[in-house]
């Protein structure tokens, strides 16, 4: 389990709790656990895009389930982060079709350009690179996810432009 020793401030604001309760209300009263995935997304979005163990425990308490049931989900899906991550997370698909279209060279190029290794944020916390499994956009290989959006048919020139746009604040990360 890739957990962080960094302390995370937990802010279960009224607005966040209202949103969580609304999500829970979509399921039968004795099946609160069914809301786990959307609740984790909401809670992560409200906490700088990561979920400490303490925060995962809080989610378990709200949904009246065991903490291990939350840990199992958080450790399985790469969209949940167990430590603070770079603001601009370049998530390159590393499955065969993207590999055949040169994604590994592009990852190396990106890491070199940013001066980082895979899985290590830049010292200013702005950028990070990681590899993920197939993102279901194989026909647009090589591709990656940046925030909520896919970046497709990647080339070194596109990577250069994306990094420049991130630095200039021109990249939108979320679709809501
Ligand atoms: S192999 Fe890369 S999106 Fe499917």
Automatic annotation (TrEMBL):
[2Fe-2S] cluster binds at residues 93, 98, 134, 138. InterPro entries: NuoE-like, NuoE_dom, NuoE_N, Thioredoxin-like_sf. Pfam families: 2Fe-2S_thioredx. The keyword Metal-binding applies. Coiled coil: none annotated. Keywords: 2Fe-2S, Iron, Iron-sulfur, Metal-binding. Its cofactor is [2Fe-2S] cluster. The keyword Metal-binding applies. GO terms for molecular function: 2 iron, 2 sulfur cluster binding; metal ion binding; NADH dehydrogenase activity. Binds 1 [2Fe-2S] cluster. CDD domains: TRX_Fd_NuoE. PANTHER family: NADH DEHYDROGENASE [UBIQUINONE] FLAVOPROTEIN 2, MITOCHONDRIAL, NADH DEHYDROGENASE UBIQUINONE FLAVOPROTEIN 2, MITOCHONDRIAL. Belongs to the complex I 24 kDa subunit family. This is NADH dehydrogenase subunit E. It comes from Flavobacterium aciduliphilum. The lineage of its organism: Bacteria, Pseudomonadati, Bacteroidota, Flavobacteriia, Flavobacteriales.
């Amino acid at each position: 389990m890739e957990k962080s020793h960094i302390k995370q401030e937990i802010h279960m604001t009224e607005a966040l709790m209202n949103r969580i309760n609304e999500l829970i209300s979509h399921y039968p009263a004795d099946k609160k656990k069914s809301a786990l995935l959307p609740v984790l997304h909401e809670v992560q979005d409200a906490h700088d895009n990561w979920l400490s163990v303490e925060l995962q425990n809080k989610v378990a308490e709200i949904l009246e389930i065991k903490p291990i049931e939350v840990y199992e989900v958080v450790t399985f899906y790469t969209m949940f982060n167990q430590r603070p991550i770079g603001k601009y997370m370049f998530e390159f698909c590393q499955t065969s079709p993207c590999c055949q279209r040169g994604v590994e060279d592009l990852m190396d190029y990106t890491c070199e350009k940013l001066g980082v290794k895979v899985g290590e944020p830049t010292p200013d916390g702005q950028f990070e690179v990681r590899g993920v499994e197939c993102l279901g956009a194989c026909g647009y290989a090589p591709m990656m996810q940046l925030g909520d959006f896919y970046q497709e048919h990647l080339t070194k020139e596109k990577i250069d432009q994306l990094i420049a746009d991130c630095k200039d604040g021109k990249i939108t990360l979320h679709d809501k």
